[in-house]
């Protein structure tokens, strides 16, 4: 923050904000390409196209995507657009368990004015490059159901020092990939 004399001060703040659930529908367009349609936190639509380059005991995929969030703050409408580019590495231990690593980069653009210092502007006003890293596990309970706990870390690559951790639990229903050959 800058005072009327031009002196700049900084502060570290921490906020815990519960997020509403997100929903995703994936469609296998081909054996190597999945299309994802998302609604993040009930309000933010998104789309991605996952390209699977390697499928074996280690799977490698690139999953570029776009997400849009529109909101309002004190009668000010704004938009935030995110372009995500994670590299997904699945370490398939056996037919039931995989560890998922997701390093990547995100670009964010926000139209929100950053002149106020509130949790709302802190979360929604960051623009620029963001480093991201995620770790999760797939627990395939049956051929048609899996649990996926995950934690993702995001850090702005600018002077804001904006950092976010997101933890979640995914429920995967429907046709799941088979890793039965790993049990042999």
Structural class: mainly beta
Number of domain units = 1
By CATH, the architecture is named: Beta Barrel
Number of helices: 1
Span between N and C termini? 61 Å
What fold name goes in the CATH topology slot? Porin
Quick structural summary:
This protein has 184 residues and is mainly beta. The protein has one helix at residues 119-124, and strands at 23-28, 33-40, 44-54, 58-62, 65-73, 76-92, 97-101, 104-110, 128-142, 145-156, 163-173.
Task: Tell me what the structure shows.
The chain has 184 residues and is mainly beta. It has one helix spanning 119-124; strands at 23-28, 33-40, 44-54, 58-62, 65-73, 76-92, 97-101, 104-110, 128-142, 145-156, 163-173. Helix content is 3%, strand content 58%. A hairpin with a 2-residue loop joins β5 (65-73) and β6 (76-92). The longest helix is centred in the middle third of the chain and has 6 residues, at 119-124. The model has no long low-confidence stretch (mean pLDDT 84).
